[in-house]
């Protein structure tokens, strides 16, 4: 199956991380890793090309921000920590979510820097002069 097709199928399903996060207000790291693996596979497939699939733009400009907003909200952490009884597990859960938020921020920054800015400042000008 083509990666773009796989993205559309997953993103439209109940199994997609963002959908699950919004619906359950719970961090499911397996779903998160599956989503990130798919996004990284798409990025890797297009890494040597000038353009990337346009589906990545809304993902990085809207979906990532939505994930970060939900997971960063104090009520999200408090709600989820309330059902975790072991203090050590609470700490691990909170650290995991914070780590994933930082990963998403870096991915968004890298995406904007590598694809948006490079295209606008370098490659677009090169194509016009060729």
Describe the structure.
By secondary structure, this protein is mainly α. The protein has one domain (3-129). It has 6 helices and no strands. α1 (3-11) packs antiparallel against α3 (29-45) and α4 (56-72) packs antiparallel against α6. The longest helix has 43 residues, at 87-129. The radius of gyration is 17 Å and the shape is elongated. The protein starts with a helix and ends with a helix.
Topology order in helix (H) and strand (E) letters: HHHHHH
Secondary-structure-derived class: mainly alpha
Total tally of structural domains:
1
Instruction: Please mark out the parts with pLDDT under 50 across 5 or more consecutive residues, or reply none.
Output: 123-130
What fraction strand?
under 5%
**Overall pLDDT metric:** 86
Number of alpha- plus pi-helical segments: 6
Q: Give the N-terminus to C-terminus distance in angstroms.
A: 36 Å
- Calculate Rg over CA atoms: 17 Å
Annotation, overall tally of beta strands: 0
The share of residues in helices is: over 70%
Task: Give a brief description.
With 130 residues, the protein is mostly helical.
Notable features of this structure?
130 residues; mainly alpha; 79% helix; elongated; disordered C terminus
Compile the SSE list and pairings.
Blueprint: H1 3-11, H2 17-24, H3 29-45, H4 56-72, H5 74-82, H6 87-129
Helix pairs in contact: 1-3, 4-6
């Amino acid at each position: 199956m083509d990666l773009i097709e796989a993205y559309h199928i997953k993103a439209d399903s109940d199994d997609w991380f963002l959908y699950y996060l919004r619906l359950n207000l719970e961090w499911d790291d397996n779903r998160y890793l599956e989503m990130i693996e798919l996004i990284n596979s798409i990025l890797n497939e297009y890494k040597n090309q000038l353009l990337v699939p346009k589906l990545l733009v809304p993902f990085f400009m809207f979906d990532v921000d939505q994930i970060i907003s939900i997971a960063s909200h104090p009520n999200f952490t408090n709600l989820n920590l309330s059902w975790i009884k072991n203090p050590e597990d609470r700490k691990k859960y909170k650290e995991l979510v914070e780590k994933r938020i930082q990963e998403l921020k870096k991915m968004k920054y890298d995406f904007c820097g590598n694809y948006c800015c490079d295209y606008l400042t370098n490659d677009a000008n090169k194509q016009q002069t060729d």
